[in-house]
């Protein structure tokens, strides 16, 4: 925007009086040379949209090739993705492995997320929280508990309301299921809305 101050005082653009213009000049937000002024306006974006949720229930996941819901689905978090099309997503859980005998145990578990709403993406191992346990030579049945989280930045999203829902997968050769508890998801938008 350019305002010519060589003639009579300008009325200023709507909402920007001569007084505002002079104060802006004193603050370095406006300046002029040879009677012409340039004004800089800053737009401060709103705060990022953030949502988080937790499911505390202890629930089993049987070995499967794909990500699935547990008996209590989720948790899920919904945000409004802005023009930047970027979000950080953190998923986590406490996982319990166990054996019913003294055999070799090789189990794994993963938590990923599915997108629905303005954006649709299936859960995948890219960006998933993962854990793996391999044990042998133990003489008695046992359990191992481990907590884990993973944070990933995703981009290329369309602006709009998007829901992120945690999904689960178990891998391995044990007859005992993998148990998930204290499941969490946290989503925060990045950039302007």
SSE order and pairing:
Layout: E1 2-4, H1 18-26, E2 30-33, E3 36-39, E4 50-55, E5 59-61, E6 76-81, E7 86-98, E8 105-117, E9 129-135, E10 143-154, E11 160-172, E12 178-190
Antiparallel strand pairs: 1-3, 2-3, 4-12, 5-12, 6-11, 7-10, 7-12, 8-9, 8-11
Structural class of the helices, strands and pairings?
mainly beta
How many domains? 2
Got a strand count?
Answer: 12
The H/E string reads EHEEEEEEEEEEE
Shape: elongated
Helix run count:
1
CATH architecture of the largest domain, by name, is Sandwich
Q: How helix-rich are the residues, as a percent range?
A: under 10%
CATH first level of the largest domain: which class? Mainly Beta
Any idea of the CATH topology of the largest domain? Jelly Rolls
Radius of gyration: 27 Å
Distance between the termini: 25 Å
Strand content: over 45%
Mean pLDDT value: 78
**How many strands, what sense, and barrel or not for the largest sheet?**
5 strands, antiparallel
Q: In terms of per-residue confidence, which ranges show pLDDT below 50 for 5 or more consecutive residues?
A: 1-5
């Amino acid at each position: 925007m350019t305002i010519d101050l060589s003639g009579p005082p300008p009325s200023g653009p709507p909402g920007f009086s001569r007084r505002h213009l002079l104060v802006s000049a004193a603050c370095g937000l406006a300046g002029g040379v040879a009677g012409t002024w340039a004004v800089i306006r800053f737009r401060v974006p709103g705060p990022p949209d953030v949502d988080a949720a937790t499911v505390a229930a202890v629930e089993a996941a049987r070995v499967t090739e794909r990500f699935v819901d547990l008996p209590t689905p989720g948790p899920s978090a919904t945000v409004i993705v802005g023009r930047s099309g970027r979000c950080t997503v953190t998923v986590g859980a406490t996982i319990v492995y166990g054996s019913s005998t003294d055999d070799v145990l090789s189990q794994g578990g993963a938590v990923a997320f599915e997108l629905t709403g303005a954006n649709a993406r299936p859960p995948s191992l890219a960006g998933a929280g993962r854990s793996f346990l391999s044990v042998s030579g133990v003489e008695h049945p046992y359990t191992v508990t481990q907590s884990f989280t993973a944070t990933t930045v995703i981009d290329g999203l369309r602006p709009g309301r998007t829901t992120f829902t945690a999904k689960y997968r178990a891998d391995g050769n044990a007859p005992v299921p993998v148990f998930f508890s204290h499941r969490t998801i946290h989503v925060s938008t990045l950039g302007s809305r």
